[in-house]
Amino acid sequence: MTQPTKFLLDESSMPTHWYNVAADLPVPPAPPLHPGTLQPLGPDDLAPLFPMELILQEVSTEREIPIPEPVREVFKLWRPSPLVRAHRLEKALGTPAKIYYKYEGVSPAGSHKPNTAIPQAWYNAQAGVKKLVTETGAGQWGSSLAFAGALFDIDVQVFQVRVSYDQKPYRRALMETYGATCVASPSKLTNCGRAILAEHPDHPGSLGIAISEAVEVAATHDDTKYALGSVLNHVLMHQTIIGQEALLQLEMAGDDPDVIVGCTGGGSNFAGIAFPFLGLQLRGGKKRRIVAVEPLACPSLTRGKFAYDFGDTAHLTPLTKMHTLGSTFTPPGFHAGGLRYHGMAPLVSHLKDLNLIEATAYAQNACFEAGVLFARAEGIVPAPEANHAVKGAIVEALRCKAEGRSQTILFNLCGHGHFDMSSYSAYHAGKLVDQPYDEAELAMALAGLPSVPA
Ligand SMILES: *Cc1c(COP(=O)(O)O)cnc(C)c1O
Fold first, then answer.
1. Which of 339, 381, 387 gets mutated to test ligand 1 (max ligand atoms within 8 A of its CB)?
2. Which numbered atom of ligand 1 lies nearest the CA of 235?
3. Were 146 and a residue from 178, 234, 249, 400 both cysteine, which residue would form a disulfide, CB within 3.0 to 4.6 Å?
4. CA–CA separation, 127 vs 49, rounded Å?
5. Atom of ligand 1 nearest to the CA of 104
6. For 285-296, how does the pLDDT look when each residue is reduced to its tens digit (9 = 90+)?
7. For position 435, what pLDDT does the model report?
8. Is the minimum distance from the CB of 104 to ligand 1 under 6 angstroms?
9. What's the pLDDT tens digit per position in 429-444?
């Protein structure tokens, strides 16, 4: 092959700032509201949960926020991450399109999540915090925060959704290897966990419940704060290092993407790759198509309502305006655990509402088929979540083929699937079921959305 495959930056070219899309929005997003008073939230309302530096980032409209030097030093363990031209996938598809992927699976935890876990742990350590609590579904966020806690000497307690605690012992082992404590949620450690177990002793858990438990622990302990791996503005901003590197790497490649694709659970890896490109557009640059891909079984952007809702089941979190399926919605069992959240990042939701991004949804078997095709062409086995982005990129490449057009497609390969091989086994055995969500349950969950005066 005569054309280059891998585009690598050296450490000295690693971005020095995060990009904050709030600086360039044509319309500001709706403010988060206090769950009790329904008044816009002030920074002090969040102080029991987060250190002030992160709260200030959450509400900032500065375009660039410096990445602290000690955080950049840790990032050098795996960043800048590679940008790869998927020559063999292009050939397998017979497409005239050029396909590039940014590979975030090179991080120690195997996904993009350490990009925010490291700064979150660092700001907490600077503020004298001794312990962080969080929730995890599939285990990717829990293991990323566990890794970050080990580096900055912070105890990490993870409420892991009961089903994944039972089904994913290796993710738990990874968290424990980094020194974190793992608790199956719902647990007996919190009021909200005890209330749920009293009614349903065998409750399988959900992200919404695990968030409630973690928030309750943080709110009731002075030396303890909470950390969230997606959804929040500051988390999305921390991930923009991905897109900023990709901008430089595509420049090296002499290319410019026409279409950018990412999978969306809470929206952070998608925002990470897309927002720096979107920012150029919002400041008068080239218009590109930006496509969010979500699971058909948990379709917040494509089927949810854009409305104020709670982030958790016990309704301890602020109300945010987002695309939501309702905080009581339980998606049917499918294997991309990281995409099972009922809501979507307010910033991603706002951009969808402004028609600045597109959204599409695919069933899990179609996504695994795409992931297997990718693995056989490019060698990397994607995380089940990342398979949604692979599927979205392949659909775009086949559209280019049908139209006889050579476009450039960039997607975020946000993690590897080495801890998810049991779901690949299920796929190979023909045992993955494309179970639709329950329309009646969705209608009920949406009917139960909180009413907020306009
Ligand atoms: C957590 C996770 C996701 C979903 O979260 P986003 O905030 O939407 O990125 C997707 N892919 C991987 C590999 C994850 O670990």
1. 339
2. 7
3. 178
4. 12
5. 13
6. 999 999 999 999
7. 86
8. no
9. 999 999 888 899 999 9
pLDDT digits (tens, 9 = 90+) for 41-61: 998 999 999 999 999 999 999
| Ligand 1 centre distance from Cα of residue 3 (Å) | 31
pTM here is 0.97
The answer, yes or no, to whether any atom of ligand 1 lies below 6 A from the CB of 266, is yes
For ligand 1, whether the C-beta of 308 sits within 6 Å is no
Residue 311, token pair as written in the block: 């982030």
Distance from C-alpha of 132 to C-alpha of 46, rounded to nearest angstrom: 15
Q: Establish whether residue 136 lines the binding site of ligand 1, counting it when its CB lies within 6 angstroms of any ligand atom.
A: no
Residue 415 beta carbon below 6 angstroms from any ligand 1 atom: yes
Using pLDDT thresholds of 50, 70 and 90, give the confidence band for residue 330. Answer: confident
